Amino acid sequence: MHAKTKQPSAGKLAAAKQDFERWRRGRKRSRRIPDALWRMAAEAVSIHGLHATARELRLNSTRLKEQLHTLGQGQASEETPGFVELPWMGAAPVPECILEAEDGDGHKLRIHLKGEAVSQAASLGRMLWASEE
């Protein structure tokens, strides 16, 4: 049988776990969890998910979820802007150019250029007409 090895926690979850353990060792019975620890748990939830964080921090997941809701309401009024203007990233019009040429025998040439090639259209036209002379 394989023994299940725990993966070491990283980042915010590890820091929160360490602070929760320190608080548990030094607290008196029936003391509430401080808001600072709930905020640390909330940050860990945003990275690791609710159930993984609750399990790692030895918290009741329902209580943690309630605290997330409470913290979210308080932060929304202070930190979240009511309106955010984003620049329009829609499609800019692509320049186009169509060059058409016809010789005396009725042979036709049509060149449709788009984008950066349009700036070279005048040069291309001069080259085509210069070769006729």
Please specify the SSE layout and strand pairing.
Blueprint (H helix, E strand, L loop, with lengths): L10 H16 L8 H14 L1 H8 L3 H19 L16 E7 L5 E7 L6 H12 L1
Antiparallel strand pairs: 1-2
Count of strand segments: 2
Domains counted in the coordinates: how many?
A: 2
**What's the overall average pLDDT, rounded?**
77
Distance linking N and C termini: 89 Å
Main sheet strand line-up: 1-2
- Summed up, the helix count is 5
Helix content: 40-55%
- Rg, please? 33 Å
Approximate shape: rod-shaped
Largest sheet: 2 strands, antiparallel
Quick structural summary:
The chain is mainly alpha-helical and 133 residues long. The chain has five helices and two strands. The chain has helices at 11-26, 35-48, 50-57, 61-79, 121-132, and strands at residues 96-102, 108-114.
Describe what you observe in this structure.
By secondary structure, the protein is mainly alpha-helical. It has two domains: 69 residues, no CATH class; 37 residues, no CATH class. It has a two-stranded antiparallel sheet. Helix 2 packs across helix 4. The longest helix is centred in the middle third of the chain and has 19 residues. The termini are far apart.
